[in-house]
Amino acid sequence: MEVPLSYGLASRAAALATGYLCYRRGSPGRGLALRSLRRARRQDINDVGHKYYLELELEDVLDKDSTVNCTAEVLYHLGNKNIAPDVQFTLEGELKNTDEADNIFYNRIKNLEKELVAENIPDSHGNVPPEMEPIRLLAWVASGYVIWQNSTENTKFQLAQIKHVKQVKRSDEYLEFDYMILLHDMVSQEIIPWQMTVLWHPQHGVQVTQDSRQPKHASG
């Protein structure tokens, strides 16, 4: 059965789909954000859940003139909050190549004499130092995984800020970062501290190996 859809519910599903897609296709050289929700419909599937069919326009966080259209399906499972929603998507067109930017960032971090440490990205004025932009985009991409795993029909998460990030020394080819981020739930207006451990390699993409919601005072 199809259900008349409020924009609020549709936009929550669209935010989830965008986060998932960014996690699957993003990198330190590319973050994806929702530019517009073109169409949406919901199907109630008996004893299974609510399925949303979405048509989205996405934009590159760094280059807002670079857009791509996408169709996505999001299935929220009935009653079980321990199962992440199912998300499937199809991109209509190509994302711009970020291999060069990714490799420059990878080599810069690999060649640092001391492990990178930073905090408050962006700062209270909304500024991001250029050398920290890939660190922010990596958090943007990784937070897409957290958003996907923890979203329900009653949430709409977005990365608000990196409170703290520290590079973790490794003996293999991966880069590892320990992030404390703030997620904004635009439904409840809650700001939630979240810790996540992120691995990345230009050939292997982003992996979130550990993440956990933190008590409110952890963001201090």
What does this structure look like?
The protein has helices spanning 7-25, 99-110, 133-150, and strands at 2-3, 32-45, 49-60, 67-77, 86-92, 117-121, 157-168, 175-185, 190-201, 205-213. It has 220 residues and is α+β, with helices and mostly antiparallel strands. The strands form 2 sheets. A 5-stranded antiparallel β-sheet has the order 1-2-3-4-5. Helix 1 packs across helix 3 (133-150). The model has no long low-confidence stretch (mean pLDDT 94).
At a glance:
With 220 residues, this protein is of the alpha+beta class. The protein is built from 3 helices and 10 strands, in the order βαββββαβαββββ.
Q: Tell me the β content.
A: 35-45%
Overall pLDDT level: 94
Oligomer: single chain
Q: Give the overall shape.
A: globular
- Structural class call reads alpha+beta
SSE blueprint:
Blueprint: E1 2-3, H1 7-25, E2 32-45, E3 49-60, E4 67-77, E5 86-92, H2 99-110, E6 117-121, H3 133-150, E7 157-168, E8 175-185, E9 190-201, E10 205-213
Antiparallel strand pairs: 1-2, 2-3, 3-4, 4-5, 6-7, 7-8, 8-9, 9-10
